[in-house]
Automatic annotation (TrEMBL):
Its EC number is 2.6.1.44. PANTHER family: ALANINE--GLYOXYLATE AMINOTRANSFERASE 2, MITOCHONDRIAL (PTHR45688:SF3), PTHR45688. It comes from Actinocrispum wychmicini. Homotetramer. GO terms for molecular function: alanine-glyoxylate transaminase activity; pyridoxal phosphate binding. This is alanine--glyoxylate transaminase. Pfam families: Aminotran_3. SUPFAM superfamilies: PLP-dependent transferases (SSF53383). It comes from the Bacteria. CDD domains: OAT_like. Signal peptide: none annotated.
């Protein structure tokens, strides 16, 4: 890097900020599904800034909406004033949520959205107890780290809420890994009942779950599993919060919200990432009685600001008008099928899983079972060298994550598949050797 940005980064930013790649890159521009770094190298982007660029880069409709807002001179106003874009965006999200008479609160990130959901649930239920899935990730602040069930991201063991973890997250390595879908769901429901009776006093505030775990390695539970949980929770009056930060906006292909695969409408949903297509925005959409349960006033200085909401409105329109959900389903299947074919002959790949454009490739060592973070690290370098950006995650850091912009074309999917195939072949050889 010309001006040694990496050394300057290390000197002044926290050590705990994770960076991808042996030589981290600085992305300076983007166009469609491609980004260019400060050294002039162009990459096809299959991670979309951890799913933030839902629609892709340099989309005129979104840039124009943001520019018009900037040109009006209104840089920021805070929720102490009326913000038209905010009201209009809230109306659309409330309607799309399926929650009756839903209300929306905007934040600046997914973390803040989940912090808000936890505050609402704990106030509504007068309880500080929360159920989360093992292997979950919900954010980087005090309460959200407290409910994150993945040691690698659990930066603090202290927590303002009492959390109990249940099975239903990382299925392929848990004690129920060999179970059929039906038996797996039954075992997880039994576990939930057991946890409620053993580690809580029953009056739990909420359960929070990602419909497909993101940071945890794109773990897809059987359809309907969270609905089966909800039936148990209803016996206790416990609220359900769907963390849609990664799964929302049609990314899973078959549904607009990931939770719809589970056959019920949650009490609250949290969202962020893709909505702003790169701009900072998140939020909570909730039942009106839950949203309005707080006993004091509140305000957000930046949450739902005119610029982020202008961009988000344009991004949401783009997703709906171009039916990007259908595209995610189509190119997602193309990628999953292609990867499954390749993986059959390469034991370094233990599993290819996912829905729509959330695809995980689980990599293992020569014994065909032990998680191999080394294989994942090598894989990342191979794809980068060939001009493709991918992500990684999972409890053991051994799952390659693919989440391209939802505008990905079939040709780009094929191009990416070629690089992924070459990288699988290369890593398979290196790891086996
Ligand atoms: N929830 C989930 C499911 C996430 O994946 C993330 C971010 N990886 C968050 C919450 C936190 O979002 P943010 O980084 O915007 O705070």
């Amino acid at each position: 890097m010309a001006d040694d940005l990496l050394s300057r980064h290390r000197a002044v930013l926290p050590d705990w900020l994770a960076l991808f790649y042996q030589e981290p890159i600085e992305i300076v521009s983007g166009d469609g599904r491609r980004v260019t770094d400060s050294l002039g190298r162009t990459y096809l982007d299959f991670f979309a800034g951890i799913l933030t660029n839902a629609v892709g880069y340099d989309i005129a409709e979104i840039s124009d909406a943001v520019r018009a807002q900037l040109d009006s001179g209104v840089l920021h106003t805070s929720t102490l004033y009326l913000i038209r874009n905010q009201v209009e965006l809230a109306e659309r999200i409330a309607k799309l949520s399926g929650i009756k008479d839903a209300k929306v609160f905007f934040t600046n990130s997914g973390t803040e959205a989940n912090e808000t959901a936890l505050m609402l649930a704990t106030q509504f239920r007068h309880s500080d107890q929360v159920i989360a899935l093992r292997n979950s990730y919900h954010g980087r602040a005090f309460a959200t780290v407290g409910i994150t069930g993945n040691r690698g991201w659990k930066a603090s063991s202290l927590s303002p809420v009492k959390v109990s973890y249940v099975h239903g997250g990382y299925r392929s390595r848990g004690p129920f890994a060999s179970f059929s879908d039906q038996d797996y769901v039954a075992a997880c429901v039994d576990d939930l009942r057991d946890v409620l009776n053993v580690t809580t006093s029953g009056d739990v505030a909420c359960m929070i779950a990602e419909p497909i775990q993101g940071v945890g390695g794109f773990n897809v539970p059987p359809d309907g599993m969270l609905g089966a949980f909800k039936e148990v929770l209803d016996e206790y009056g416990i609220l359900f919060v769907a963390d849609e930060v990664q799964t929302g906006w049609g990314r899973t292909g078959e549904h607009f919200w990931g939770i719809q695969a589970h056959g019920f409408v949650p009490d609250m949903m949290t969202f962020a990432k893709g909505l702003g297509n790169g701009l900072a925005i998140g939020g909570v959409v909730a039942r009106p009685d839950v949203m309005d349960c707080l006993g004091a006033s509140s305000i957000s200085t930046f949450g739902g600001n005119p610029i982020s909401t202008a961009g988000a409105k344009a991004a949401l329109d783009y997703i709906l008008e171009k039916d990007l959900q259908a595209n995610a389903a189509k190119v997602g299947s193309q990628l999953i099928n292609g990867l499954r074919d390749v993986s059959e002959e390469h034991p370094v790949v233990a599993d290819v899983r996912g829905k729509g454009l959330m695809i995980g490739i689980e990599l293992v060592g020569p014994d065909g079972r032990t998680p191999s973070p080394e294989a994942a690290a090598r894989f990342m370098e191979h794809t980068k060298a060939r001009g493709l950006l991918v992500g990684k995650g999972g409890l053991y850091g051994n799952v390659i994550r693919l989440a391209p912009p939802m505008t990905l074309t079939e040709e780009e999917a094929e191009e990416g598949l070629g690089i992924l195939t070459e990288s699988i072949v290369a890593v398979d050889k290196e790891i086996a050797g």
